[in-house]
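RECORD TYPE: protein structure
NAME: Phosphoribosylglycinamide formyltransferase
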Amino acid sequence: MTTLPARKRVGILISGRGSNMVSLAQAAQAPDFPAEIALVLSNVPGAGGLERAREFGIATATVDHRAFNKDREAFERAMDEVLRVNQIEFVVLAGFMRIMTSWFVRRWEGRMINIHPSLLPLFKGTHTHRQALEAGMTEHGCSVHFVVPELDAGPVIAQAKVPVLPGDDEESLATRVLAQEHTLYPRALAEVASGRVALVDGVIARR
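PREDICTED:
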């Protein structure tokens, strides 16, 4: 009888409805998926994704950033403690609407990934679909990357592309990109949780 390797304990950070979190939780139900979604943590009390996580039987927690009087590192240290208590090995950002300090990023360096709605290095930051349309792009998409201190600048693990169609607006383009995110993110998490992709000396290493 073949014994499957131990699954990585993953904590997902969310701020809202958590649609990417749901796609990850669904993928993790497969017995051969190399990651277990062990915790969903939100900075927003009552975030819709918390209830969705509980429907999957996933433990949830909230650390309200507003309670820390704009002390970002104190907020992150509180989050880090929750992650530690829950024995989290890997952090996944899924619609987490806070910019991390260098302290937190370095604490989880090589063990934290994010999904961004553009084909990085194009269109960092917010309003990426608007930026793509204004730039006259013929294709757009999403990227999963390791998190580094510089915003949206970490090495890219995987990308998915969609065409920009005549008549597209931000909403229609965002809808098609989000559908790709829901497929891409579980695939990318499987790559890093299994060790097939890693961050080594600031660059991607693939096995």
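COMMENT: The chain is about 35% helix and 25% strand.
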